[in-house]
Amino acid sequence: MSSNKEWVVPEGTLALSLDPSIESDGKDIFVVVHGRQIAKRGRPGTRHARKWISLVPGFKVISPPDISTVSINWDGRSPLWW
């Protein structure tokens, strides 16, 4: 996966030094922050297709179908691991 993504920090959210990336294990696509998979892309043909499934409480990932931009939201309440 290309790491040349536009990472968006929505207005009103806390801008953290996330250093995110998009990675694939050959089967699934993940958003990775500080070495931890925080969201997994839903597989085609499922009800989660083209949506990000949160793997870490407090994080929400949103992007268009082509994953040209990625927005990472953190609720500000859940503890961070770094």
Quick recap of the structure?
This protein is mostly beta strands.
Widest sheet, order of strands: 2-3-4-5
Identify low-pLDDT runs: 11-15
Counting structural domains, the number is 1
Radius of gyration: 12 Å
Mean pLDDT: 81
Enumerate how many helices there are, as a single number: 0
Strand content: 35-45%
Detailed description of the structure:
The protein is mainly beta. The chain has one domain (6-74). It has strands at residues 6-8, 20-24, 29-33, 36-41, 52-54, 59-62, 69-74. A 4-stranded antiparallel sheet has the order 2-3-4-5, with no helix packed on it. It is globular, with a radius of gyration of 12 Å. Residues 11-15 have low confidence and may be disordered.
SSE blueprint and pairings:
Layout: E1 6-8, E2 20-24, E3 29-33, E4 36-41, E5 52-54, E6 59-62, E7 69-74
Parallel strand pairs: 1-7
Antiparallel strand pairs: 2-3, 3-4, 4-5, 6-7
Features:
82 residues; mainly beta; four-stranded antiparallel β-sheet; three-stranded mixed β-sheet; 7 strands
